[in-house]
Amino acid sequence: MRFGVPQGPVLGPVIFTLFTQPLVEILQQYNMSYHFYADDTQLYKGASPKHITDLTTGLEDCVRDVKAWMNRNKLKLNDDKTEMLLMKSSRQIINTPSVSINHTIIDMAEKVKNLGFIFDSDF
């Protein structure tokens, strides 16, 4: 196989980790925290309210580079399943700019499900 990781072999998780190492390097360039679980990737980044615009611009740039890496490696980022959650204090009112990935606007979610747990914007 020139691309991907076969499902089922004992070495599958190790091979997957090696295969995705360049993805980790892209995320680290943007100082993103991340979590991989099977074929699911989550990105995390904190910012003060006055730096939200910089945060969203950096996120767009990072995801653009991730998507380019995925395309080169015959993988697909599912834009329809991409979600964004802004966690903040319930007392804070933050005007968030929209985030666009590949000409698709990613709506801000009020809550997201992560491994069976539901997180909302007020945490």
UniProtKB/TrEMBL annotation:
<protein>
    <submittedName>
        <fullName>Reverse transcriptase-like protein</fullName>
    </submittedName>
</protein>
<dbReference type="InterPro" id="IPR000477">
    <property type="entry name" value="RT_dom"/>
</dbReference>
<feature type="domain" description="Reverse transcriptase">
    <location>
        <begin position="1"/>
        <end position="119"/>
    </location>
</feature>
<keyword id="KW-0548">Nucleotidyltransferase</keyword>
<dbReference type="GO" id="GO:0003964">
    <property type="term" value="F:RNA-directed DNA polymerase activity"/>
</dbReference>
<dbReference type="Pfam" id="PF00078">
    <property type="entry name" value="RVT_1"/>
</dbReference>
<dbReference type="InterPro" id="IPR043502">
    <property type="entry name" value="DNA/RNA_pol_sf"/>
</dbReference>
<keyword id="KW-0695">RNA-directed DNA polymerase</keyword>
<keyword id="KW-0808">Transferase</keyword>
